[in-house]
């Protein structure tokens, strides 16, 4: 059966096959480079591609930017047609039978088109399809995924474009013989939600438990009535980022959650410091499928997405060993923050700008933090970033609003009740606030005695056998965050701290 794929985007596609390739100019004026055996055309701003059974499309590039293979249709993001389309494909050998897959990670691919993605790993090249069903009606789709070479295995990606809002979906990953391999469900949010809730977790890596602590935190969160729309992880998923078995174990322990709740990854140092990578590269890129701007993914990824009236910007602090975030990424950051009209702006980054731990406050360890303060502080203040989520130092810390000169500014607060507890709200602060939500694994840490207490509302060490996370809810005019510290030995909550921002 031939796989017919439709795309509606500003695309440059390149198709290069094991056989001969040819270039032609479509009636729309788009130059299409494709193998003679592949059919591709652009018609009414839709790209149509089909290939024989013995081939699998690996890569579609639109004006130099990669887009993922699917059955979706996409509006070209501007009025200009792409100049060039290049498609790469491989000959494939179809092996009938079951393929072992690693745990599946669901992500939000493109909020603008309400598109989601799933990413999973296999030991060999796979050509299985994915069935997508809307459980609210009878709509069904058959998705053709990409299968990329990873570091030690293959990375499989399927993108579900232009989904309906406020619907429940089921996706089923098939074996090559058409039988079911894995299935999960997820729900899309309404188009313009008045309230969103997400989980901030970081540094789940640990060598002893490897995901068991994170699972306990997830179990506790859901048993307590919190049900996040998505998870935002600020780096260091596993201890050795280049060890795929650790990723399988980590995600395997929380599989029931991360296969159904969109999980957005931030690149941490355990995925770009050579001591932890075992020669691997592009580690986060190989474990998630998100709508990336053009970039080098070797030492991390950066991207942005919207959810409700919140704009999220995810940075890579592994972009530059000297400055953390290099000049190209900073240029993209400014354009990204300047181009959004969302009321709230939240940034996620692994290496902290401000932290009471060693990487933020020890003179022999905080060179990158000091550089980030200078390089990013003025950008965050100029473009009115509200909150910066950090990781790396495994403590719980909440700063005062901090200006571009690394100074706390004057602010007003209002104390009120929130979820049967007391929360202190910053009233229309004129500078970003920085939050570190401890570690979601077993690697707890102390604060250092050289940190500057004048910068912080609270700075707390994490005791043995304790881990933490925050649940953050954003409405039209308020952001409320609650930090939970949990003892995974006794299975009890040991501390809770709520605070917020009011616009």
Itemize the secondary structure elements and their pairings:
Blueprint: E1 3-7, E2 21-25, E3 31-35, E4 39-43, E5 46-51, E6 55-62, E7 65-67, E8 84-91, E9 105-110, E10 115-122, E11 130-134, E12 140-143, E13 146-149, E14 154-160, E15 168-174, E16 180-187, E17 196-201, H1 212-223, E18 230-233, H2 244-253, H3 255-258, E19 263-265, H4 274-277, E20 303-307, E21 310-314, H5 327-339, E22 344-348, H6 358-361, H7 367-382, E23 387-390, E24 396-399, E25 412-418, E26 421-427, E27 433-437, E28 456-460, E29 466-474, E30 478-487, E31 492-502
Parallel strand pairs: 3-8, 17-18, 18-19, 21-22, 22-23, 23-27, 26-31
Antiparallel strand pairs: 1-5, 2-3, 4-5, 6-7, 6-8, 9-10, 10-14, 11-12, 11-15, 13-14, 15-16, 17-29, 20-21, 24-27, 24-28, 25-26, 29-30, 30-31
What proportion strand?
Answer: 35-45%
In round numbers, the mean pLDDT is 89
Supply the number of helical segments: 7
Q: Would you identify the regions where 5 or more consecutive residues have pLDDT less than 50?
A: 1-19
Gyration radius (Cα, Å) is 23 Å
User: The biggest beta sheet, please?
Assistant: 8 strands, mixed
Quaternary structure = single chain
Give the strand line-up of the largest sheet.
Answer: 19-18-17-29-30-31-26-25
Fraction of helical residues: 10-25%
User: What structural category characterises the helix and strand content?
Assistant: mainly beta
Distance between the termini: 56 Å
From the spread of the alpha carbons, the general shape counts as globular
Number of strands: 31
């Amino acid at each position: 059966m031939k796989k017919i794929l439709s795309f509606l985007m500003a695309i440059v596609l390149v198709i290069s096959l094991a056989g001969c390739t040819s270039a032609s100019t479509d009636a729309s004026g788009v130059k299409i480079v494709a193998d003679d055996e592949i059919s591709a055309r652009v018609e009414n701003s839709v790209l149509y591609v089909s290939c024989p059974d013995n081939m699998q499309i690996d890569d579609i590039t639109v004006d130099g930017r990669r887009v993922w293979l699917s059955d979706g249709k996409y509006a070209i993001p501007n009025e200009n047609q792409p100049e060039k389309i290049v498609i790469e494909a491989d000959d494939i050998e179809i092996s009938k039978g079951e393929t072992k897959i690693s745990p599946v990670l669901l992500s939000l691919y493109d909020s603008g088109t309400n598109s989601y993605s799933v990413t999973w790993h296999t030991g060999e090249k796979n050509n299985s399809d994915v069935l997508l069903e809307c459980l609210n009606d009878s709509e069904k789709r058959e998705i053709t995924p990409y299968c990329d070479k990873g570091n030690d295995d293959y990375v499989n990606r399927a993108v579900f474009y232009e989904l309906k809002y406020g619907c429940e979906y089921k996706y089923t990953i098939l074996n090559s013989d058409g039988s079911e391999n894995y299935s999960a469900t997820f729900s899309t949010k309404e188009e313009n939600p008045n309230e969103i809730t997400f989980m901030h977790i970081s540094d789940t890596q640990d060598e002893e438990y490897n995901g068991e602590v994170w699972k306990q935190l997830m179990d506790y969160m859901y048993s307590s009535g919190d049900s996040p729309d998505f998870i935002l992880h600020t780096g260091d998923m596993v201890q050795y980022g280049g060890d795929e078995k650790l990723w399988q174990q980590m995600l395997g322990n929380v599989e029931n959650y991360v296969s159904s709740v969109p999980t957005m990854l931030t690149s941490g140092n355990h995925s770009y410091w050579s001591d932890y990578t075992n020669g691997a590269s592009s580690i986060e890129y190989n474990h998630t499928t998100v709508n990336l701007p053009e970039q080098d993914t070797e030492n991390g990824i950066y991207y942005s997405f919207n959810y409700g009236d919140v704009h999220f910007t995810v940075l890579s602090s592994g972009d530059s060993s000297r400055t953390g975030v290099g000049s190209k990424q900073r240029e993209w950051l400014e354009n990204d923050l300047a181009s959004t009209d969302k009321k709230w702006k939240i940034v996620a980054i692994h290496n902290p700008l401000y932290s009471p731990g060693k990487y933020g406050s020890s003179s022999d360890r905080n060179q990158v933090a000091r550089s980030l303060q200078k390089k990013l502080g003025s950008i965050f203040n100029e473009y009115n970033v509200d909150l910066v989520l950090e990781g790396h130092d495994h403590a719980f810390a909440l700063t005062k609003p901090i200006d571009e000169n690394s100074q706390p500014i004057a602010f007003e607060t209002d104390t009120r009740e929130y979820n049967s507890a007391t929360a202190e709200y910053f009233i229309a602060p004129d500078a970003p606030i920085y939050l570190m939500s401890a570690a979601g694994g077993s690697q707890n840490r102390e604060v250092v005695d050289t940190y500057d207490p004048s910068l912080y509302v609270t700075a707390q060490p994490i005791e043995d056998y304790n881990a933490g996370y925050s649940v953050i809810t954003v409405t039209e005019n308020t952001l409320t965050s609650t930090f939970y510290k949990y003892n995974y030995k006794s299975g009890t909550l040991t501390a809770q701290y709520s605070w917020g921002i009011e616009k």
